[in-house]
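hi!! sorry for the late reply, been swamped w classes. u asked for the two structures so here they r. pasted raw, havent cleaned anything up. first the sequence of the first protein and right below it the tokens
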Amino acid sequence: MQHTFLKNREIVGIGLHSGKPVRMRLRPAPSDTGLQFHRMDLDAEHRIIPVGVSAWVEASLCTVLENQHGARVSTVEHLLAALHGCGVHNAIIEIDGPEVPILDGSADPFVRHIFAAGLRAQGVPAKVLRVRKTVTVEKDGASARLMPAANFEIAFEIDFAEPAIGQQRKQLTVSNGAFLRELSDCRTFCLRKDVETMQAHGLALGGSLDNAVVFHNGEVLSPGGLRRADEPVRHKMLDAMGDLYVAGYPMIGRYEGVRAGHALTGRLLKTLLADPANYEIVASDPFVQRKLPGNGVSAADLRMSA
């Protein structure tokens, strides 16, 4: 079943890269609308940016969408992961600038705003993207793969020289609230030296210990430490949830990432959708519906510590 919001919900925060305040509103949308960003700082003719692979722009630091007029919205991945994990299929996201607020660096605040807005079933079967053939992309020792599977699954592996991160692996069947219980509170992470370099070049100006896990010489600098022992790899899985939802549909298939980032996952999605033999779009019946990330979710699935 397709879902949208019951009511409007306003979100205010800081843009990670601009460091400037951002005001955003979640609004209900009719069935089969899909997800749309509306840049309210632009005129009506140029403001709509649909969530779809045709709008995806390759970028390394975040996920960026762009419409045919060149209007962009960036850092959409955590919000899209929250919408994906909560089973929101139709929504208008009004935003007063080019960047989604970073909030605490995870999807958890967005999920809480979604529950505050409420969800409404729309009486129309949700469309699902089913992977039919294995597709792989690789670059500089990193890889990302989509393959057929009975459910929606994510597996990820990371390997960092930073001793507080090191090598981490995790896999998860993402259905029936698993995203909320296992991934949604996991924050973006970085090394202190990388933050200093980015800020020296005018990037990540809104980055702080309040919206990222910062590592330095084997230590976690962020107050309170890690939320999970393997929070970095879980956050990478969260990112993949958001990046894959750029397709505009929940997915049945298995994603595997090895040191992959936003650019590689986006390239994988474009490669998959470039050939109709790789996938099919199907209307979900009750059996398929039970396999989707948003099926049966509730606020009880959220971790109270986030």
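now the second protein. again sequence first, tokens right under
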Amino acid sequence: MNKDLKLISDDSYGTQKRVHFVCEKIAEESPNIIMDIGCGTGMLLTRDVAKAFPKITIHGVESDLTTVEYAKKANGDISNMTFFEEAPKEQKYDMIIASEVLEHVDDPNAFLQYLYSKLNPGGSLLITVPNGYGIFEFLSSVETILRIFYRFFVPKQKSNMPQTEGLMTLAISPHLNFFSFRRLKRIFSESGFRIESYRGRMIACGIFVSPMIQKFSALTRLNLTLADTMPPAAVSDWMFLLRKGEKRVIAAKPRHSLYTAIKRQLSVKLTQQG
């Protein structure tokens, strides 16, 4: 797969850059069976992966039953992809994809330990997660405040049903965790994973910023390519390939900081306003 993705055709969220990163790592790892957990309708990532690798079995796992039923109908033409509410109990995987999921779970350590248990020895975890202190999360907070206090300024969006293209999951879930890069590395290590590769996804996206960036292809490209060279703290979203190790530390559920508590409340408010 060509590593030099034509980012000029992407958006400010690096949607295609994420697909490219995932497919590139799959090509390097050559797994036989993959789980994409938290896959939604499958239309934003799972489908692309299944089409790119028709000989690999893909299990899409999504906790919302309505979304699973929609995904089955929308992706019925892809033979190597199956959707479940829960992963088959006895099934182990060569690779697991958890893209934009970790920030939605209450206990990230427990979630990662579950993924650890579902991987074959030496298996890998592809994970993408937003920078909890990045530009995107800051703008999300701004958006929430505007929606709460100035709803006329930011029009209400309908989000209770899928878009026509089936790109939106029915399972609407707020962000519950807001990670620093340092905390994320510690959680990975505690859960038995080591980082094998990392790539920044984009510098800026979100309300106000994305419409401006996406008007100019040069800005879109700059936004995505700078993320490859800037330090993680300056990037809005992180992409990792993690390797399952032999040892892990079962960590106690951490206490949430005041920052996380406030951000959680704002995130829940935004979901309710949506």
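hope this helps!! also noticed smth abt the second:
The chain has one domain: 7-273.
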